[in-house]
Task: structure prediction
Amino acid sequence: MDTPTHALVGYMIAKTGIGRDTGKWGTIAGVSASVFPDIDLILGFLGTEFSLKYHRQILNSILLTLPFSLALAWVFVRISKVRRFWTFFIIGLVEILAHNFLDLATSYGTMILSPLSDYRFTLDWLFIVDLVLVSIFLIPLIALHIWGKWSRTFARVSVILGVLYIALCAYNHSWALSLAKTFVRERGLVADEVASLPQPLSPFRWANYIRTEEKIYQGLVNLIGGDKRNPERADNFLSRFLARYQPISRLQYGELKRADNSPWVEKALRLDGVKTFYWFARFPVARDKGELDGKHRVEFFDLRFGAINGIRRPFVYVVDFDREGNVAFQGFL
Result:
């Protein structure tokens, strides 16, 4: 989940009354604890590859939640002069657990068992910037500043609605995932992974993925869609985007080879940087792009972050070989 959403959720949790005997410092501590695991975003200055390896790692570990909460409680007792150590501890514990849960609910991957394991756990329930969830917390936030005497009520209502919305997303995820599993069964595929990933703007739009030994299949579904919108006839970007998601009755899957049959691809796959990319990616695709500016380029991307026929692809990893076959450049674009 993005950091502003974490801060917003953290603020509203703090306003529910869990830190009522700490005054304004309870709110400050709550927001601070809610964004604490994201301070590792500073790793982005050391490069995308470094950030992928260590973001959502040690600071998101559920094994270290108690030590982090104790440390934050000690800090806020010191700086606030409010002698409510265990109240600050509860605030920190609740906020950090909420942060880790929201991160886990996305499809990015969170190493919650770090440092014992670097496996990236996901629930695939929420899009990383979920505007519906933001609205559920933002509207009550505005209301509690207008009607201050009802602030605790507004905060509690927002948390309850947030939990119910996440439960809806979890249910829809299970529904969409069942469609992907039906496709696997009907086609007689041997799947390495089957997943349904949340999409922006609606909890009813999902991207289904099936990874086999040689191919990746993708189907974009609108669980409650029944319209006949055609992306070719849409007159603006939003209409074209929404029209890509098909109703269940017309759901079709595109397919893509996982890797080109190329000695350049095989050579690139042996590099440590590419191995790191494959550790991060869930639906990786390798493409031999041929000659480019006197170098031979191999490109890797993760379909998790784009449609099969998409144009923009974040987290694209490239390897350029010179004419002698040596690595001239490798890294994210």
Observations:
- The chain has a mean pLDDT of 91.
